[in-house]
Design brief:
single chain, Arginase, Chain A, 8-stranded parallel sheet, about 10% strand, binds ligand ZLM, binds calcium ion, binds zinc ion
Amino acid sequence: DYGMEKPQGSSVSFHYNPNVEYHHFGSSHPMKPWRLTLTKQLILAYGLEYTMELHEPRPATLDELAIFHDREYLSFLKNITPQNMESADNQAHILSFGFGGESNDCPVFDGLWNYVSLYSGASLHAADSLLNAQSNIAINWSGGLHHAKKNAASGFCYVNDIVLAIQHLLTQNQRVLYIDIDVHHGDGVEQAFESTDRVFTLSYHKFGFDKYNNPFFPGTGAITEMGPSDPANRGKGHTLNIPIEDGIDDEQYMWLFRTITGAVNEKYRPNAIVLQCGADSLGGDRLGKFNLNIKAHGYCVEFVKGFDKPLLLIGGGGYTPRNVARTWCHETAVCVGATLHNNLPTHLPYLQAFQGEENGGGVLYPDLHNTKRHENVNSVAKLNSIVRSAFENLRYIEG
Ligand code: ZLM
Ligand code: CA
Ligand code: ZN
């Protein structure tokens, strides 16, 4: 017994194809699919596999991806390899499809098509399990790639599994609420559904400029961005963005999250909810700028679980792999209603990946706030004004 209590209430399904782990974006690229190996090992070490239904979904097919993506983009994605990308024909398209470029956010790597089909297949299968009422909470930690556009890769994302899963949920649900707690703005999902009132998108993210006046990626998601302004457009007012500054702490984030998400849920009354749980909003993340602890991040999952609606949980960003694994293991436990003890199981493979840290090596819940990487510049006055604006923005969906 590893300190777990019996699960209660909801039934949870876990959708994961382990072949996704073996893909590499390149040696120093921040996106590391092996963080999913760590996550899985932690979940197994705590015995959480006995509390959920486990599924190993097949890869998505080209036709399934084409429900959202352009076929020209998909056929490029399917055929491009590190070997053939230098050809004149491919070079002519590579930049317009979002690959390569100066930042190389979206590199071409071996097995790219396999990788995107696997994480997308898992999100589609998870959505399917909710549609068939096989579970009330379906989890895919390998998905959540919210920046991909219908005809372009962007920000480490090639195929938008979230859009595909939401489209699938819409076949039997009138309204779907999308919530995004990744530190980056969920621009791809927002854009895909900007002209419909059947999806409400809500993203919490860092928004602002660095000392060179470069915007934090992707640069969109101001509080004023609420969807189309044309009153005839049904999507008007069905987008809500919560811009946050560096260093936000647990109390502030949890307050913002429950105040705003609670209001959106009450006013929009969704039939199903998709929650993107990007773990780059944690303190000590390689790319993120917030100071959140694992339990504050997990509070968002707990809070949304409390709405008691079909819930699809998906991963996303997260660039300090040991903390990604800790967070998604904790959030899996939240879903099944288990409490995990802080000392990591000693038989955990890769135990050394969780040891030798300044704050709390060898434990599930290290103090991430005290890594103090980012000064908290979120004032009470600023947060109050964000909530005021958010409530004002919500008037569009009243009645
Ligand atoms: N340049 N390697 C989050 C996606 C964040 C774009 C464009 C100048 C990186 C980053 C890539 C190995 C999610 C930008 C121009 C260079 C910014 C971003 C490859 C390090 C590396 O070491 C790296 C050579 C790379 C990329 C850092 N990119 C950090 N931040 C963002 C994209 C995705 O978490 O939301 C969901 C999964 N891109 O800022 C430039 C604008 C820098
Ligand atoms: Ca976000
Ligand atoms: Zn992110």
